[in-house]
Amino acid sequence: MFNNSETEIINKMRLDGLGYKAIAKAINSTRDRVRRYCFNHNLDGFGDVVAANVDLMKDRNLICACCNKPIKQKDRGRNRRFCSNECRRKWWNDNPQARKKKETAIYKYTCPHCGKEFSCYGNKKRKYCSHNCYIKSKFWSEDYGEHDFKKDSNY
């Protein structure tokens, strides 16, 4: 029906509060086509009401929390909060304060290889502070001839 650039223009102009006729004039289309698109993408109603209810639409998960594009929700299952996986990843990377970390899921350990104290979130079974310490402890120990390996290799 509309290409990607036209849908972006419709979404932006509609969320800014413009009416169907003004949007149709901007993208050189008919008012009815724009109205039908807006109805199918939960952007119908009076333009100023749509613009005033952007936060309400975000709360109801009708608009992507990252890019403000409309989301068509499925009839069954959990409501979607983001329009795509890219938006979901971008939003969580930009808003780390929104994560609800439990204090009981933070574990403190001492690395058996280097002796450094470290903490990790959500992993009860972790032993080493890094992958590097794990490899050194597992494969570069005295049993495997660590000192001979270092002398003979180019590493």
Key terms for this structure?
155 residues; mainly alpha; 2 domains; 2 strands
Describe the protein's architecture and organization:
It is a single chain. The chain is mainly α and 155 residues long. The chain folds into two domains: 82 residues, no CATH class; 50 residues, no CATH class. 44% of the residues lie in helices and 6% in strands. The chain has eight helices and two strands; from the N terminus they run ααααααββαα. Strands 1-2 form a two-stranded antiparallel sheet. A hairpin with a 6-residue loop joins strand 1 and strand 2. Helix 1 runs antiparallel to helix 2 and helix 2 crosses helix 3. The longest helix has 12 residues. The C terminus is likely disordered.
Give me the side-by-side strand order of the main sheet.
Answer: 1-2
Radius of gyration: 27 Å
State mean pLDDT (0 to 100 scale). 79
Sketch the major β-sheet: 2 strands, antiparallel
The N- to C-terminal Cα distance equals 60 Å
Low-confidence stretches: 146-155
Number of strands: 2
Number of domains: 2
Percentage of residues assigned to helices:
40-55%
**SS-based structural class?**
mainly alpha
State the shape.
elongated
Strand content: 5-15%
Report the order of strands and helices: HHHHHHEEHH
Oligomer kind: single chain
Number of helices: 8
Offer a quick outline of the entry.
The protein has 155 residues and is mainly alpha-helical. The protein has 2 domains: 4-85, no CATH class; 103-152, no CATH class. The chain is 44% helix and 6% strand.
